[in-house]
Amino acid sequence: MSFLAITICRRATDGLYQKSAMRERNRSGMGRTSSGTFDANVTSAYSSSGRAEAFAADVSEYPRRTRADDLQNYDNSFQRTWSSGRDQWRSSYSNHQRSRSFGQGRGTEAGYGFFVVFSFFAFFLSLWMLLGLYGNQEVEMGVFYSRVMHANSFFVKEIKVQNVRDKGPVAYSFSTRPELAPPVSDKRTQDILIDRRNHQRHIYWLNKGSHLEISCTLKDSESGTDSLIVAVVKGEDGFQEWKVDPANPDLALRWTRIRDKGSLSLTVKEDDDYSIVFGNLNNRKMTLSINLEFRHVLHSGKNADLQCSPQTDTCKFPVALGKSTYILLKSPVAIQHGVDVWKIKILYVPRWITYIFLWGLVAAGLLSTKASQLRQTRSQAPTTQEHAPLFTDDAAQHPGSSTAVPVDPFMQADDANDERANQSEHRLCTICLDAPKDSFFDPCGHRCTCYSCGMKIQGGNSNRCPMCRQTIRTVRRIYDA
């Protein structure tokens, strides 16, 4: 009796489907139009290449009623789609976490590398300060020597001046740069003999504003082809460059070639050692008469804070932290007892607290960066843990009972009531959606229907589980539903 009622309901439903489809086509005008032509939106049975293509064998004019096979196919398709989406999301999220961790790791490594480079730079800078710029110096002083020296108070604590030989030099200490004294003139004339393919060098310390005039006369020239080179170069580096190629005028501040007579002049623009060099490129000795005229710009020793003559003891000049200290070294303006060159030694006492602070800062930076790198390494482990899936397990197992959407963890607290409602729907029979799932199929064990619907499926023509399509041997009831 119940089977007959089910058959009558199915046939009535088929008739309603057919009538509804006919009315829908006549009312919507989506198929053929009244004039017998196809609507523009209707796709032709021919492909774009012009070949005729037949429809599939199961295509019908009427809509096909959903069967249990369709439910199973839909369920399998949804399972594959959901699994693929979940795997893709997990893979992309893991890649994002790895790339984020890798980026943070690279940033930490870059910071550590920066501090390593900075530590080497600070180390070599300290060596250059201690042994180079503020290392011990020996200075040779000629007449009219007037040189101002200045040291950085953050790196130098004290300046010592020692006399190496002969008396005469005087050292002064100023808190401001010493003033200039009126210019002093000096003239020197002498004859010099230069060996073949050799040179002679005369060094003078000249301050800014000093002026130099040189006049030369070549003696005992046997042929008109003999010549000498006279040049003025700045500093030791300039002299070494000139010595490599003395015939190059570009390597000297002033340069001339003398065949009989010649002269040159120079106005000094910067305090430094200046060398007057005479080069003989001939294959025989040459004699040269030179006339030098100087106008020296010297510094005055007036208003000095400290004055010391390093005759018998070492002169000590303290350098106050954060304040400027200038040391003026002066030599006599005339030859004394046949001495025209004096030699002194300058020693810089380093301010060790500055170097200790600098090295401590570098060490702290290295330790901090290394500690951050270790913390980053330890924190990478939790980032690879598996996170919650995009879809719930119940939605994956029973796609027909609810709409499968991504689960936002931040909306769970706000939608607690909706979750409880959805969970109650998941417990209902997938056939009638009314009674709870209080039965399961033997032998497959699927629990998806109520006991009544399960018995109807077992007694029907298919007698197969709607989930796995396995033959149902019996339906067993569950009393905890």
Automatic annotation (TrEMBL):
GO biological-process terms attached to the record: protein ubiquitination
Transmembrane is among the record's keywords: yes
Protein name per its UniProtKB record: RING-type domain-containing protein
GO molecular function, one term: ubiquitin protein ligase activity
RING-type domain location: 429-469
PANTHER family given in the database record: E3 UBIQUITIN-PROTEIN LIGASE APD1-RELATED, OS05G0521000 PROTEIN
InterPro entries assigned to the protein according to its UniProt record, in alphabetical order: APD1-4_M (IPR032010), APD1-4_N (IPR032008), Znf_RING (IPR001841), Znf_RING/FYVE/PHD (IPR013083)
Gene3D superfamilies: Zinc/RING finger domain, C3HC4 (zinc finger) (3.30.40.10)
